[in-house]
């Protein structure tokens, strides 16, 4: 214990260097991937690139900031506890996804397009957890969102509509955010670009309601808050399994950290808080309802993410309503556990479908525990995550809805396990060597990391409380009973296409046909280099304007 504390204290002095290395490593790996002679090493670079970020998250939290002041704008990077937690779980998820790619899809991972998309998305993912100024955060957030398009189009047979829908929602969210960020910079003292300065002055800003609305919409699009969720199901079922694990288990948390960084939890915003709570809870149950109609296991996990991220949004909304930063801490822990569990479940699909006989028999119980952890099954990390957000809901209708969401999640997750068990194995005879290890690593981390983090911040007392165990178990028991009773009804329920709203519009509405034709024309225009260059110039001018505002 003493030696570990000494090691961590010793690394505080090197905190800025560790953060710099975490940001620099994906860039170095990206440069290495550009060399044709190193094509065979690309899969291994995908697994190695997140390692410095994981080390920084574990060893350099709360260290001195990294300041790069020899630029147009001073870039500042810090690592606070919520950022360190989400960085650690996201980096671990990227490592596991990289190891899975090395073992199971080395040919695809060797392709430069796939590797570049992964590394750029990883770079942005690391950046959002470290960025302390508005411009750095925006650039990092854009890298989390836009390069992931390459992961979609890298898959053969994927409809172009999937990529277009993803990019459309991503660009819409970016438009909301850049408007909010400009307003934040204008309202900050001396037009400071530091996030904390802009957020601190937000309560007195005449644009505060507009800014909060834009922030919720922009980051809500990333985490799949209704109605921006439509990109999730089609994307998660189109990309490769390791890419789906990284996007659902790591990249989505960029939206969570954005809400935690930019929303003012020290001031009461009851109107926006209540609105976000209502939208979040609707999403929590909507995701389960549509997820139960899916036949594809990946689509079911995507709608589970819609449900779980809706719950995170509801917790954040409660924090805005009462002006409590404790809700933000609980939301961070809940999102961290969700990332590990959901990423682990995507990897589990590959493990189970590649296994036969006894190998599949021992894998399915682990999958079941991992799935039920999303509903809060003790003693998994999901139970600790539920405990962390318990006080945010309190009693009354909010507390009841929280318990009912656990029942609904149990129903969806057990249906997912049943569908996965009924899916016939792939043609491969055995599990690819090296695939099981990263999956088990994530499964163990989903228990260990939330438990250790909660113990460090709140102690172990609540975790071993018998009352807590009972309150966590009975919603799962009811959900399991409902899954048994309504199994046949769920199996014969009408199928709703993945993407629900977007898919239904594409199928039937005349307006959708007109929109599709307009989108095709716009797409042809956007493919012209002159237009693309003009758009890039416009973004550069916008970022330059923010930088000049801050001077």
From TrEMBL:
Location in the cell: Cell membrane; Membrane
Pfam family, one: Proton_antipo_M
UniProt topology in membrane: Multi-pass membrane protein
Keyword ATP-binding annotated: no
Cellular component aspect of the GO annotation: plasma membrane
Transmembrane segments: 72-101, 113-131, 137-154, 166-188, 210-231, 243-263, 269-289, 301-320, 332-354, 361-377, 397-418, 430-455, 467-486, 529-549
Recorded GO MF terms: oxidoreductase activity
Alphabetical UniProt keywords: Cell membrane, Membrane, Oxidoreductase, Transmembrane, Transmembrane helix
Alphabetical list of InterPro entries matching this protein: ComplexI-like_HydComp (IPR052175), ND/Mrp_TM (IPR001750)
Database matches in PANTHER family: FORMATE HYDROGENLYASE SUBUNIT 3-RELATED (PTHR42682:SF3), HYDROGENASE-4 COMPONENT F (PTHR42682)
Protein name: NADH:quinone oxidoreductase/Mrp antiporter transmembrane domain-containing protein
UniProt organism field: Methylocystis echinoides
Organism lineage: Bacteria, Pseudomonadati, Pseudomonadota, Alphaproteobacteria, Hyphomicrobiales
């Amino acid at each position: 214990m003493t030696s570990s504390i000494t090691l961590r204290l010793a690394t505080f002095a090197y905190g800025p260097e560790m953060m710099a290395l975490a940001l620099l490593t994906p860039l170095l790996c990206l440069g290495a991937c550009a060399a044709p002679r190193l094509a065979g090493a690309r899969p291994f670079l995908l697994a190695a690139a997140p390692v410095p970020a994981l080390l920084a998250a574990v060893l350099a939290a709360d260290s001195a900031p990294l300041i790069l002041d020899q630029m147009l704008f001073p870039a500042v990077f810090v690592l606070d506890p919520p950022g360190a937690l989400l960085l650690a779980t996201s980096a671990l998820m990227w490592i596991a996804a990289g190891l899975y790619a090395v073992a199971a899809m080395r040919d695809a991972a060797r392709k430069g397009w796939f590797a570049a998309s992964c590394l750029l998305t990883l770079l942005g993912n690391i950046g959002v957890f470290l960025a302390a100024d508005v411009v750095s955060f925006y650039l990092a957030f854009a890298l989390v969102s836009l390069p992931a398009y390459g992961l979609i189009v890298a898959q053969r047979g994927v409809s172009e509509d999937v990529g277009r829908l993803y990019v459309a929602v991503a660009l819409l969210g970016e438009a909301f955010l850049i408007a909010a960020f400009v307003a934040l910079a204008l309202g900050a003292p001396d037009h400071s670009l530091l996030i904390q300065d802009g957020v601190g002055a937000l309560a007195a800003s005449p644009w505060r309601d507009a800014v909060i609305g834009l922030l919720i919409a922009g980051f809500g699009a990333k985490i799949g808050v209704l109605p921006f969720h439509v990109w999730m199901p089609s994307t998660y079922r189109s990309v490769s399994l390791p890419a789906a694990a990284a996007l659902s288990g790591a990249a989505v948390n960029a939206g969570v950290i954005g809400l935690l960084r930019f929303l003012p939890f020290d001031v009461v915003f009851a109107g926006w808080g209540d609105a976000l709570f209502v939208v979040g809870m609707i999403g929590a149950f909507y995701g389960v309802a549509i997820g139960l109609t899916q036949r594809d296991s990946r689509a079911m996990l995507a709608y589970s993410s819609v449900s779980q991220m809706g719950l995170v949004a509801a917790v954040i909304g409660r924090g805005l309503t009462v002006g409590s930063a404790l809700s933000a801490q609980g939301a961070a822990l809940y999102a961290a556990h969700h990332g590990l569990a959901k990423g682990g479940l995507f990897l589990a699909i590959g493990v189970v479908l590649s296994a036969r006989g006894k190998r599949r028999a021992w894998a399915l119980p682990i999958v079941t525990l991992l799935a039920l952890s999303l509903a809060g099954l003790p003693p998994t990390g999901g139970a600790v995550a539920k405990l962390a957000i318990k006080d945010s809901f309190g009693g009354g209708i909010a507390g009841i809805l929280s318990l009912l969401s656990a029942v609904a999640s149990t129903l969806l997750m057990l249906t997912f396990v049943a569908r996965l068990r009924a899916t016939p194995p792939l043609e491969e005879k055995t599990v690819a060597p090296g695939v099981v290890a990263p999956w088990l690593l994530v499964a163990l981390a989903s228990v260990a990391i939330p438990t250790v983090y909660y113990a460090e911040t709140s102690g172990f007392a609540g975790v071993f409380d018998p009352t807590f165990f009972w309150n966590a178990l009975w919603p799962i028991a009811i959900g399991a009973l409902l899954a048994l009773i309504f199994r046949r009804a769920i199996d014969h329920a009408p199928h709703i296409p993945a993407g629900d709203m977007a898919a239904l519009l594409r199928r039937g509405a005349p307006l959708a046909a007109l929109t599709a034709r307009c989108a095709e024309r716009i797409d042809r225009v956007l493919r012209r280099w002159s237009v693309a260059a003009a758009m890039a110039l416009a973004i550069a001018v916008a970022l330059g304007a923010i930088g000049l505002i801050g001077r």
